[in-house]
Amino acid sequence: MSQANMVPVVNNGDGDNNENNNNVNNNNGGADNTNAGNHSGDQELGSGNTSSGNHGEGLENNQAPPPKKKRYNRHSQLQIQELESFFRECPHPDDNQRNALGVQLGLDPVQIKFWFQNKRTQSKNQQERHDNSELRTANNQLKFENQRLKEAIRQASCPKCGGKTAIGEMCFEEHHLRILNARMTEEIKQLSATAETIEKLRGKPVMSHPGMSPPTFEFGMGSNGRDVYGNVGNHSRETTGPADNKPIIMELAVGAMEELLVMAQVAEPLWMGGVDGTSLALNLAEYTRTFRKGLGPRLNGFRTEASRETGIVAMCPIGIVEMLMDENLWSTMFLGIVGRAKNHEQICADAAGNFNGNLQIMSAEYQVLSPLVSTRDSYFVRYSKQQGEGLWTVVDVSIDHLLPNLHPKCRRRPSGCLIQEIHSGYSKVTWVEHVEVDDSAGSYSIFKHLICTGQAFAANRWVAALARQCERISSMLATNFQSVDSGDHITLTNHGKMSMLKIAERVGRSFFNGLTSSMGSTFSGAGGEDIRVMAMKSVDDLGKPPGIILCAATSFWVPVPPNTVFDYLRDETNRAQWDVLCEGEMIQKIAEVINGRDNRNCASLLRKVNTCQTKMMIIQETSTDPTASFVLYAPVDMKSMEIALHGGGDPDFVALLPVGFAILPDGTGQPGGNEGGSLLTVSFQRLVVSGPSGQLSISSVANFENLVRRTVLRIKALFPCQTA
What we know:
The structure is a single chain. This protein is of the alpha+beta class. The protein has three domains: 17-127, Homeodomain-like (Arc Repressor Mutant, subunit A), CATH 1.10.10; 240-473, Alpha-D-Glucose-1,6-Bisphosphate, Chain A, domain 4 (2-Layer Sandwich); 478-718, START domain (Alpha-D-Glucose-1,6-Bisphosphate, Chain A, domain 4, 2-Layer Sandwich), CATH 3.30.530. The chain is built from 19 helices and 19 strands. Strands 1, 2, 3, 4, 5, 6, 7, 8, 9 and 10 form a ten-stranded antiparallel sheet that branches. A nine-stranded antiparallel sheet has the order 11-14-15-16-17-18-19-13-12, sandwiched between helices.
């Protein structure tokens, strides 16, 4: 483009534009007019932006005689070259530089000033045109690439069956039949090619094709369950089927992610007020209309549970994603909901290790904390993706339809969470829980209302549990612990408080592990159907005494709200009224460390008032959130506890067997009205035979059952009712 060397040009965005207008209007065709319009190509720019230009245009429009034409003087080539050379070095000369340049070139400083203004404007316009041209080119390339990818997806076919790979264009049943047919065809070819070998092996049992065998859950019973440090035990199943369907699984995960993003962000009419007054419930008719090409029709006889909840948690998004993608951390984070979890196969993993685009096949056992309620087993793919700066999504979707001969009782439609960073270590989490369950064979008794209304596994339970665990982790990372030291009793250092929190955390983990084990099956010979008893043998287990340990659990209902029950059971002054192990003696609190915003979330150290008659203390962990509360405790050796608290020993080696209560609402409460009753599950662990070579007797089991039954009767007597 031609170089700018004509003046005046005004209002061009530079800092000295206001001065331009005055100079143009006040000069009589002098220096301000001599530099207007000269370019390196001798092209004259119009001066329509100037006052004089506008005035002249107006007179012409009114057919009035034009004023005397002003005379414009062009700069010489030498002047232009010098000005351009100086412009490349300094596009914004000051007054002294303009004066010196004017003397050198024989120009007025005002001419110099206007020339530089015009040149800056011209350069800016040229750069904008260049940028626009590049953006148009890039946009056209992206459009072409997008169209190419759409066409490739539209024409893609399954390498196994030759059918379409678009999940939304076929139902689950059709897709299942295609995969099954392809596998059978492949198996026939293999059998035909090896006919002679099969003839030689005639008479020997022939194993079925591995691709046709459904995965199985193998939960270890009769061992010590999960280790208290996060080991998920013997939860495993073979996954030969999905390994052959990775492209389909990846497409399924991407579609589930897209659906989750809509489900997590769209409000009415897709979501309505829930039963509990907090979580949102899904409008199934609107869901079907919105996702016409979704993940297939709903299964006959299955009941739908769908809810959404949003909350603030004290953890950054990447920290939450890391815990969700690690099966051990995930099951530990949601101890009251996830019984067991296993990561079967990593399909995709981010090379940088930041979980962006990670895709893995998992299975899990979801539980209501009661031996009266069957667990839900689910087999699914989990996919994590960063959607933007500080914004992540993690989605689950079942892949049971890819596994022949598998008939799941729980199918996860796109479920998961949208995690958004809000400020300094805090995240906003929107959780969507959408499942289909077949509970036709279930017998829930007192839990029926909680289960059938979808509150047992609703989104608000997941968000509340996540927020509570994040609080606990934050308190463990704190340098100063909030505590309550009782009068003339012990005073703990920060090290002692940390040790106390670690031991209390072990109490919680061991409690949930024992409760999960006792929910598996009734101990042979145990009397009564209301108490589940499980025997475990402890051999060299860290933090557990060696020998045979009995775990027992049972559930019952009381007609008072969960908060009332929780506050009563956690108060050490009431303990003698219900704890049969206290033998009627008063209990006192000697130390307490708070690990949450609610002061009731804490670890406490208790002992009998008359310490001369016992060498035992009680370590107690109490925890509560809007959906569940827990009072967990364990007798510990006084000497071992004192050593651990005063820095002389590892708190992980303090032997303990926990006892405790899980307190859930019965689901009948109404917001702002009747709070409903409480569902209590009590679990005991007790060493009944010392040493690894001891034998368990029926009388030991009967005595243990009697201990549990007496505790239940005492608590029911404190809250009299017509039991459900």
